[in-house]
């Protein structure tokens, strides 16, 4: 203000800038007192500072029609001066700075930096420091970030026009008032604020600005009855976010959030500061985002209340599906199970009797976990069978999920379930399927992680990698002698690891001993694609999340059905390729009939194998493990003049693949919840689970397998892993 008065121009049209020491290319703007102190701090070792005062041309505003506010306080005389002002031009050697620099002045640095606010711009073309009058640089300068940031708020400058203006409701009036104060950058305080009247005054002491609005009789309309539009308050512009409520923030960001669902609170803070000149804190932005999400997506709480109706809708629109839920004694949500008819039919008609169980945490407002059962289709792609949302992962949750899964399936005979070797999960599988020939295959990845954790010896990173390599080789070995060879290799490295492998029940994970058919699928993380769907929709209310997953399944089934209609082979593309690779090896094999029955044959190549053509068996075990004839079997089939396709498992044919995707998942109409008397089942109230979010930022990366080759800390003192020399306990023992 003082500099503007000194050069007879409007303060809103000038900016003050300076160079950093040793830098003559980048000008730094002084926008407030902190910037001024920072400049003096940078130049504390200098005797003077060169300061550049710059001006921008603007059109003189029509002051008579402008509301009296801090952001528009300009006199007619100032407007005239501004119109006549002609900026000076620097010498040729300074033209890289700006063609509109008013002057090059000298800024003397005071000895006492603590008294910087008591110095002022003064005297004859030089900016000098003097203690007489306080210097205030807090008002927004043209070209500074504050004025540029206010452009988005200019649309609200006329939200309040004066006495007689009407609003549809008291909330509409409050919203207009809030936007008006942000546009004119002043803070207000409620004196009266209820459902039928609102009285507000300027928060600055002594400022006469005041407004009163009340309801018109017999209507809901709110009308401004009194208003004093004049501001006399001076001081720094209000840029803090106490006038920006959560609802206001939500309204501002809603459209962008619709386009960018991952809009982060820290980005909201930055954008609102740039666009409206309002400084929010992180939690104001976060709460505003939560309200905007609820406005766009619906209420989380109401979604739980919709569950009874939603489950009925699933079973009505998709006959043969199973959708059920349970609640706790306090009516809070407990579990939800969903399996669509198209998934159940496709699994039982076209897929191998092989299921993978897995789970993924949900980072929603009420957290929870998604449990899933997926299967491989004939082309070894993921086929979703069933899923559940539970409040927490526990033995009881898995037991309940498996019970619902068994109820949904018509038969479970010969089923193989690949899952972790957790005690509760192991017991749940055996208890639920105790009357069926169901096999539990342990997840090899889970076992290898546990093996590394349980090893207590001083093993280097390379040694652990060798142990895991031998462990995997033992699991894939088709015959007992191959398995024994691999674990003997482990024994030569570590007796502890060898004993662990023996005690880990190889019957459940080694190909050489497993009684079921797992088709060489050794890990339970087969359904990663399905889990990614849940991760993409985890922030939606529960009914919308389930419907999003339903839409993904519907799209998946339709796309694969259409793609398979163009296949001209008997097997799926992946299986055709595998069969062709085995057929190429046949030319190096010799076939001999081993008996008069003509059922068993001896095949010689690098090894000697016995093929039982009637029992679909080869001593190499490749045929049994994969479901496709191995090269030895293909050699025998060729000698008999038969077609190898006739000896492939039916699950790999295009016909079975098309059966898998023959049924469709139907849409669920987005109707409002009907009156409870219209429900076919008894009245059920579902409330959100009483779950609190854990403190801190949620993890952005899903926890995966602990790789065997990941480098671990190793102490150079005691040679143990898991710590370094500085935290070694041996050191304390030695000192004692």
From TrEMBL:
Q: Which SMART domains match?
A: ZnF_PMZ
Q: Where is the SWIM-type domain?
A: 609-641
Q: Which PROSITE patterns match?
A: ZF_SWIM
Matches recorded under InterPro entries: MULE_transposase_dom, Transposase_MuDR, Znf_PMZ, Znf_SWIM
Pfam families with a match to the protein in the record: DBD_Tnp_Mut (PF03108), MULE (PF10551), SWIM (PF04434)
Q: Does the keyword Cytoplasm apply?
A: no
Which top-level group of life is the source organism from?
Eukaryota
Molecular function terms, GO-annotated: zinc ion binding
The answer to whether keyword Zinc applies is yes
Keywords in alphabetical order: Metal-binding, Zinc, Zinc-finger
Record-given protein name:
Putative transposase, MuDR, plant, Zinc finger, SWIM-type, MULE transposase domain protein
Tell me the organism.
Answer: Helianthus annuus
């Amino acid at each position: 203000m003082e500099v503007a008065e000194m050069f007879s121009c409007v303060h809103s049209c000038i900016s003050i800038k300076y160079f950093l020491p040793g830098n003559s290319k980048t000008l730094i703007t002084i926008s407030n007192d902190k910037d001024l102190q920072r400049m003096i701090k940078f130049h504390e070792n200098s005797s003077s500072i060169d300061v550049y005062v710059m001006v921008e041309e603007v059109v003189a505003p029509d002051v008579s029609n402008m509301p009296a506010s801090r952001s528009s306080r300009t006199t007619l005389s100032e407007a005239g001066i501004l119109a006549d002002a002609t900026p000076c031009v620097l010498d040729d050697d300074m033209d890289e700075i700006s063609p509109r620099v008013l002057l090059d002045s000298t800024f003397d640095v005071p000895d006492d930096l603590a008294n910087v606010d008591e110095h002022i711009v003064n005297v004859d073309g030089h900016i000098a420091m003097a203690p007489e009058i306080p210097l205030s640089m807090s008002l927004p300068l043209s070209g500074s970030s504050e004025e540029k940031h206010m452009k988005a708020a200019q649309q609200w400058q006329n939200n309040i026009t004066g006495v007689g203006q009407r609003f549809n409701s008291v909330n509409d009036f409050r919203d207009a008032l809030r936007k008006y104060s942000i546009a004119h950058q002043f803070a207000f305080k409620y004196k009266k604020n209820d459902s039928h009247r609102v009285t507000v005054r300027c928060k600055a002491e002594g400022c006469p600005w005041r407004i009163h609005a009340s309801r018109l009789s017999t209507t809901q309309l709110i009308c401004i009855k009194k208003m004093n539009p004049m501001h006399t308050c001076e001081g720094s512009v209000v840029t803090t976010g106490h006038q920006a409520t959560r609802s206001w923030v939500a309204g501002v960001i809603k459209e962008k959030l619709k386009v960018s669902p991952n809009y982060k609170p820290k980005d909201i803070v930055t954008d609102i500061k740039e666009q409206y000149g309002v400084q929010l804190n992180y939690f104001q932005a976060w709460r505003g985002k939560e309200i905007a999400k609820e406005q766009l997506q619906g209420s989380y709480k109401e979604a739980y209340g919709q569950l009874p109706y939603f489950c009925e809708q699933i079973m009505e629109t998709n006959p043969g599906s199973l959708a059920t839920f349970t609640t706790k004694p306090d009516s809070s949500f407990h579990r939800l199970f969903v399996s669509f008819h198209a998934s159940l039919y496709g699994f039982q008609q076209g897929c191998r009797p092989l299921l993978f169980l897995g789970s993924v945490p949900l980072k929603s407002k009420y957290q929870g976990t998604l449990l899933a059962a997926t299967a491989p289709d004939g082309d070894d792609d993921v086929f979703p069978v069933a899923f559940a949302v539970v409040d927490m992962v526990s033995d009881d949750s898995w037991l309940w999920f498996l019970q619902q899964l068994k109820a949904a399936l018509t038969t479970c005979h010969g089923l193989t379930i690949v899952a972790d070797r957790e005690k509760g999960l192991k017991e749940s599988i055996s208890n639920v399927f105790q009357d069926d020939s169901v096999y539990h295959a342990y997840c090899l990845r889970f076992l290898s992680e546990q093996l590394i954790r349980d090893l207590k010896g001083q093993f280097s990173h390379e040694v652990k990698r060798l142990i895991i390599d031998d462990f995997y080789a033992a699991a894939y070995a088709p015959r007992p002698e191959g398995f024994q060879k691999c674990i003997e290799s482990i024994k030569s490295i570590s007796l502890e690891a060898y004993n662990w492998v023996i005690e880990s029940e190889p019957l459940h994970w080694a190909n050489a001993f497993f009684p079921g058919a797992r088709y060489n699928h050794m890990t339970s993380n087969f359904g990663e694609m399905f889990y990614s769907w849940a991760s993409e929709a985890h922030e939606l209310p529960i009914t919308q999340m389930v419907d999003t997953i339903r839409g993904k399944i519907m799209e998946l089934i339709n796309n694969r059905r259409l793609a398979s209609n163009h296949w001209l082979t008997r097997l799926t593309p992946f299986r055709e390729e595998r069969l062709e690779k085995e057929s190429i090896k046949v030319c190096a094999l010799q076939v001999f009939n081993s008996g008069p029955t003509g059922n068993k044959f001896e095949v010689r190549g690098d090894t000697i194998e016995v093929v039982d053509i009637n029992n679909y068996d080869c001593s190499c075990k490749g045929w049994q493990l994969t479901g496709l004839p191995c090269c030895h079997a293909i050699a025998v089939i060729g000698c008999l003049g038969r077609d190898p396709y006739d000896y492939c498992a039916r699950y790999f044919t295009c016909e079975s693949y098309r059966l898998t995707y023959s049924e469709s998942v139907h849409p669920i109409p987005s109707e409002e919840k009907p009156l409870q008397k219209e429900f076919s089942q008894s009245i059920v109230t579902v409330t959100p689970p009483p779950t609190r979010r854990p403190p801190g930022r949620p993890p952005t990366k899903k926890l995966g397998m602990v790789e065997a080759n990941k480098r671990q800390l190793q102490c150079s003192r005691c040679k143990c892993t898991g710590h370094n020399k500085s935290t070694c306990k041996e050191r304390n023992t030695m000192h004692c």
